[in-house]
Write a structure and sequence with these properties.
globular, alpha/beta, single chain, 8 helices, about 270 residues
Length: about 270
């Protein structure tokens, strides 16, 4: 069995409520992903791909709540379990090969509405930026919203940072993640181009969003990432927001998607 084929034999079907349906995604490198699609009750004004963070999933309550708020605002939403997570196959590569996951979700989103905005949180922010910076054809992508994303490959010298390093970089840590968090992390990491280098190559609208109470990736990181981005760009600091798709981020994400589309409409 290859890593790409490593998928739970009976992927669960999630009843997330009205408007949702499950849809299997297949990446260019052969990984099967458990996808979830939410359509609004009217013709969507655009489509949004939500990319969750490390140890989360497309059915995590914070992700689902964010998707519902976007649908209420008229957006179609595609989310999924990233490789190595939940009901998807493959191995987690911490945002590197996950660019293929984003591409598969974008293809589905573009069928719902040709204007697509990618919103990634934490590890998902890395994946979103890497996809947008390296994809051969991103004509359907109108912009990226990077939530709680790192700028460089520096883990904070905090208890959480040290714990994350031990979990990711040691064999015992990866076994614990697989057993208790249901996340399969690959043993090798190529130390790819960091997010600040990726965002510097983008010519589409970029939102860098961060919370004042994020204890996993500190607020100054957002300023570094924003400084590396080209115009049009914006830095959104959310008071009282924690990490990733924290509930305090939800309205700000909707406004960031609207801002992205406004920038596209105003461009010559």
């Amino acid at each position: 069995m290859t890593p790409q084929d490593l998928t739970p034999s009976t992927p669960p079907s999630h009843d997330l409520g009205p408007g949702w349906h499950d849809e299997e995604l297949r990446t260019a490198d052969g990984v099967r992903l458990a996808g979830h699609v939410l359509v609004p009750g009217r013709e969507p004004v655009a489509a949004v791909v939500l990319v969750h963070g490390f140890t989360a999933s497309g059915t995590h309550p914070d992700v689902v709540a964010q998707a519902r708020l976007l649908a209420d605002a008229g957006f179609a939403v595609v989310t999924y379990d990233s490789r190595g997570h939940g009901a998807s196959g493959g191995w987690c590569t911490l945002g590197d090969d996950e660019r293929h996951d984003v591409a598969a979700a974008v293809a589905v989103a573009a069928r719902l509405q040709p204007q697509v905005v990618v919103v990634g949180a934490s590890m998902g922010a890395i994946a979103a930026l890497r996809y947008a910076a390296t994809a051969g054809d991103v004509d359907g992508i109108r912009g990226v919203v990077a939530v709680s994303g790192p700028a460089q490959w520096r883990l904070p010298l905090t208890l959480i940072g040290v714990l994350n390093a031990l979990l990711i970089r040691t064999r015992l840590g990866r076994r614990l993640l697989a057993r208790h968090a249901k996340v399969r992390v690959g043993s090798g990491w190529s130390r790819p181009e960091p997010p600040d280098a990726l965002v510097a190559r983008l010519t589409m609208p970029v939102t860098i969003m961060h919370g004042t109470l994020d204890r996993i990736i500190r607020l100054p990181t957002a300023r570094l990432l924003h400084a590396a981005a080209r115009e049009p760009r914006q830095l959104v600091i959310v008071e009282g927001m924690g990490h990733a798709f924290h509930r305090r981020a939800h309205p700000a994400v909707v406004e960031a998607v609207r801002w992205t589309l406004d920038q596209v409409a105003a461009s010559p």
